[in-house]
């Protein structure tokens, strides 16, 4: 048992990690328990000046500097409640009515209870099922769901360890991870300005400094830098926004809701109906064209196909001029406001700000607003002083050298040599895009255009056609998941619930720290640890202040019988005689190897680093002299061609015209596409008569996707939960008072939101902070099914998202901005109607699994 009393350890505690650490904090431990989590002081063990503190000075003299301590968010301060959650899987579990030697009852997954078994028995079962399935069907019958965000652990990686073992066994089918955060940029923007690998502006070096010195305004077009950086890198982006205000640089928010950053920092809020941004963008271009508010010569020297775009905007193509008056009823933004915005923009140095891209980048036809944004940026001379596309969360994004708008550190500590986690670019023979999993389980074969559908692939990959299964491979018969939250994070969760109960699936094994979501559909559950319970190495790359490399000491003993993800898979590897090849060393050896390959040896020795617990990488010398984002291209486009086929901005995409000339859902010239063959999720579609609201599903303020919904400290916030008359804490739904008045809804009412795909409950929060015609409920709440595949109490609105992908030839996710209706429900009556099913698992007050799903020994 490791020493765990009276000490302080350092941990990166961000929840978006896949080997990339963030949100570092100090954890004080007493008597083997977490006492408190607090900021760590960079200068506690090092001289602050050695870090070369940086400084950005605005033209009015306002100054932005890093703090001398890390900037954790409420999610980190409260993390001990997640570690000690009563939802922790206490020991290995087996579903009672799943018998590997008899009846398997797939149809009761999600409602059958569990019994305790030993690690020995659990790993015997997993090993023998693997052998049987490989022998009967071959390796591709095993689907590995091993991607996902979560705790950033390196040796004890949260996601991916099963892939290593399955590789040693002969292969598997990979659930390919979408470019989820950036669907529209990937499927759309890459075809107008290239910008591989992400599709957002590459070359953002020193963009923020340029904005501070030369910018007049940042349009926050669908971002919330006071909420989403909580998941990525800490509180710095909120400080950056305050600095913009001090610097006299205006912030205009274009969003359907007055989100948390807008409420604190907006000089102006322009409410827009969800996913109608493309119409607004077209109308802005119209004003510029009609009023001559752009430099045509400059645009033509940097692009191809502008005439085609002009023809579409002015109405030459379809007879509809995209005027402000045309856009006003579609977008909810008045013609007057559109003209004022267009004129202001053309006369000032304006940048567009994002975090990942906002809801519209994960909505139907998201390729179009992404491309149209590039049209607008280009018409106003991208790269001119103070003008670019800036991401408030991209501080050292994935170590890509040129996506770095804030001052650069000398080095990004490299963890790859010992990272056991999932690699985004794994190249298995057989894979299924994450959006198509339910279909691939229930109705194979599946065909798609769009290549590997893995974030970071080059644009040309999108033109490859693929099939599942590949020739020689068969159907899926087993799932091994270390990321059991598909239902509440992807597109069409009710369909996934049906897939998980499909007889094709003979065995599901989940390894997870908490009993929730898809884990409650597994046949065997292996309990895994949080990072507070292990020794590890990690980095911190996203703070926007300094990079760090941390020696993460174990803080507290393992909870229950849990093992780390790496160790849990190791126990199965032992049963298969593959442990040595799987593990590649001891924990101690790997931590040392990790440090030696991190690039940090030039600063200090391994022993010094172990002793201190962390090292702060200094700011690069002369970082101010780095290249200035797109300035060289702005000055001379021929000096650095873009990665489009013509090397220029393509208002008319030559590649789309060549590969998909007839695709009206993603035509060569970007369009406003309200609905079409793939989707009808628009207020302009007749379906809106029945489902008259668009649902906004932002990234949750008090969670990171599916993580943290059981955190009792978070659940106390009024914006986190709404207490129903039955005492259950429901997921809030923001309703504008104008809509609420018509529907006779009141603050605190419990309602169902619904469409043909099912219904989800929530609690009304009346607020003028959401535009009439839209409702807003955060994404990622825990599934608490009343009727599986139909009706949910937890507020997991992904259950009723569209299953169809971005568009016909774009297999991206559509999880935001879809049609629903809302109606008040009487939960006390409902409880009578569904006496057994209602609130099967979650305790109404604490939200904990009331241990009702585990049958105790002796009972
Ligand atoms: N409606 C709607 N849906 C969306 C979005 C949206 O905007 N709206 N956004 C999309 C985006 S951008 C993303 S990135 C995805 C996120 O989707 P995911 O990456 O799938 O979601 P997460 O909840 O972050 O993480 C996956 C799982 O990892 C688990 N986990 C955390 N730490 C560990 C660990 O140490 N070990 C193990 N075994 N498991 C661990 C979590 O509990 C969770 O079950 O959601 C997408 N879905
Ligand atoms: N707390 C927390 N932080 C997170 C995460 C989390 O789950 N929780 N997830 C992390 C991940 S993986 C990612 S990808 C990023 C996501 O970062 P983003 O993509 O920026 O986050 P979203 O919440 O989807 O959207 C941001 C804002 O867009 C606006 N918006 C929504 N729909 C529309 C629309 O149709 N049009 C316009 N104009 N605006 C719209 C809303 O005001 C919303 O607050 O956040 C990361 N950080
Ligand atoms: Mo994301």
Automatic annotation (TrEMBL):
Residues 693-805 form the Molybdopterin dinucleotide-binding domain. Residues 27-80 form the Pyrogallol hydroxytransferase large subunit-like N-terminal domain. Its cofactor is Mo-bis(molybdopterin guanine dinucleotide). The keyword Oxidoreductase applies. InterPro entries: AhtL-like_N, Asp_de-COase-like_dom_sf, MoPterin_dinucl-bd_dom, Mopterin_OxRdtase, Prok_Mopterin_Oxidored. Keywords: Metal-binding, Molybdenum, Oxidoreductase. Belongs to the prokaryotic molybdopterin-containing oxidoreductase family. This is Dehydrogenase.
